[in-house]
Design goal:
Layout: E1 21-24, H1 38-41, E2 63-64, E3 77-84, E4 97-99, E5 102-107, E6 111-116, E7 122-126, E8 148-150, E9 153-157, E10 162-167, E11 173-178, E12 193-195, E13 198-201, E14 213-218, E15 224-229, H2 243-248, E16 261-262, E17 269-272, E18 277-281, E19 285-286, H3 290-293, E20 305-310, E21 316-321, E22 337-343, E23 346-353, E24 359-364, E25 370-375, E26 382-385, E27 392-394, E28 405-407, E29 421-423, E30 428-435, E31 438-440, H4 459-464, E32 467-474, E33 479-486, E34 494-497, E35 501-505, E36 510-515, E37 521-526, E38 536-540, E39 543-550, E40 573-579, H5 604-617, H6 619-622, H7 639-643, H8 645-649, H9 668-686
Parallel strand pairs: 2-34
Antiparallel strand pairs: 1-11, 3-40, 4-5, 5-6, 6-7, 8-9, 9-10, 10-11, 12-13, 13-14, 14-15, 16-19, 17-18, 18-20, 20-21, 22-23, 23-24, 24-25, 26-27, 28-31, 29-30, 30-32, 32-33, 34-35, 35-36, 36-37, 38-39, 39-40
Amino acid sequence: MWCTGAAMLLIACLAACSGDRHESTVKAEPHPALAVDGSAIGLFAQHPDQWLSTGRTYSEQHYSPLEQITTANVAQLGAAWEADLSSPRFGIEATPVMADGVLYVSSSWGRVFAFDAATGRQLWFYDAKVQGAWLRQGCCKPVNRGVAIWKGRVFVAAFDGRLIALDAATGREVWSTDTTGHQPAYTITGAPRVVKGKVIIGNAGADFGVRGYFSAYDAETGSLVWRFYVVPGDPKKGFEHPELAQAAQTWDPNRDWSIGGGGNAWDSFSYDPELDLLYVGTGNAGPWDPRVRNPGGGDSLFVSSILAIKSDTGRLAWHYQTTPADMWDYNATQNIVLADLDVEGRTRKVLMQAPKNGFFYVLDRATGELIAADKFVRVNWAERVDLKSGRPIPTGAADYTKGVKLVFPSPYGGHNWQPMSFSPKTGLVYIPARDIGWVWGAATATWFYQGFDLRKLTKEDVLKQTQGLLIAWDPVARKPAWAVQQKTITNGGTLVTAGGVVVQGTEDGYIRCYDAASGKLLHELFVGTGIVAAPISYSVGGVQYVALTAGWNGVKTTPDDATTPAAYDNAGRLIVLKLGGGPARVAQQKPLPSFFDDDTPQPLSAVKAGAHLYYTYCYVCHSVVGESGVMPDLRRMSHSTYEIFDQIVSGGALEGAGMASFADVLKSEDVANIRSYVVDWAQRSRRGEPALQLDTGSSLTSGGGRQGL
């Protein structure tokens, strides 16, 4: 049960609006535990044995001051216990939190678990009971990145847009608030933060062209306190808050205002209690293509930006836009790390971010002044960032409105949501990075960066040009101290400890421990299940533990992965390690289903029509390379699935599992054409051939359809 003495963080953003449907369920007093509040969460080094926020403290450093596990003994790290997280398919992205011996963690859809942090005994379980059909409303599976704790309550945001308060002792629901009005294409995947008694939460949906915002709710009652809209609505209808008048100057006044514009703050919140400023990273512009979104041109404020928000009022203190006029899905929602650095002979209070666009930013967190911006992976969309104006200098090589362009980084980003960490002892930032590009404006065959034409590149050429990296970045020297090339592209967030150890999970099922000073691999444990979440470290009874969730979520991005499914079960689980622990359990191996084996020739006209429909409605979940790693590879469907294909796609036969009906947008003929395309694709795959090459530009860059990563 929840005991005494620590706290947790939540972070806020701004806004002022109403209209949420507030559902009060149980009027309950908070559990009488010692207050988990802002003083307990702290800015940097308080409560070293606890992990009270997704990043441990308001600074979001993902740094543990514990020193029992060191570079000298980390090879003795083994399994202490593990627990199932009731997520047999979908990935697990949550960072756990731990207070007073209780570990709280979320899994897909918005489920929450409480465990005894030393023994693994489950204390309670809560299911938000999201309808499976809501999966269609999101771009990237029904993942959840964690919970927040505050004064005896646990807060979780469900995939369908509800913000829920639970009693920390029992898991009983205290209140629930619908933050999005159950509007289509809005979901929540991020962890809430609590600041000064206000629960801060954003939402996702920019890839569908919705209008992004984030909100603050009273932690006691669930009532809306303020709301900040990231992009303006139709100026003729007025602005919800003054900052939008400034933003509107960067949008075409004659644009179609029914297109929301994006900017959703779906992940990053940090807070400085001394400055009383909340730092919010905003999402990409939506739709991606500026010809659809903002045809008259302009920066499209406040998309792809870092916002400093006054936590009491939700008003803007300052902003910095990392990617003006974003057209490449370059979110700035990646975690924002606060630290004090010695810069040119004086101590500066800074924030640091490595967003998707490939530049590592250091800003003065009081004023928003840009201190540094440097490439940490391959970047060709901008030559550099001008430190005086703060604006990137475009190269002209990435404007796909003028033809096919190979752009670095890809929409997956040089760094995505997987948290980076910072060690005050080494002064280094540990970035789970990706060096991979994207062909924009091309046919779907070159959707991933594998060259403009796959036939012109050897397999070896492709492999040389795509890689995952663990980069130890020196923000003062403005360059990497070391970097490790990894075998897989998409890997987990990082933890760094005062014992000098960096811990990271990988796509290929390893937990790896590195020397924080040199990058030397010190220890690895094979668990089979891919990992994308960030680890934490805490102490109970004088024993230091490392905990992380396993369950891979992403899209395969290398040529081998395109035809090779994950070999091990992806069932979500929580893995906890300690010195002297036992061997880690390896996930169950999975049999490889055969390709659909009907050789009946499919009409070419049906295959072509089905291909366009597949890339509009199906690829987000089922992938364009076949093996998505999470969702079923339709090339491998069974004959029984083939027989009821229409019932699944139009009739909603599998809605409970997340496959919603598409009868509102697809006619029976459309469904038949999609099936023809999938069958043709399976036949080509059996022959070792690629899928049908579309002879027109892909809808992925057209600004319509279901874009998303």
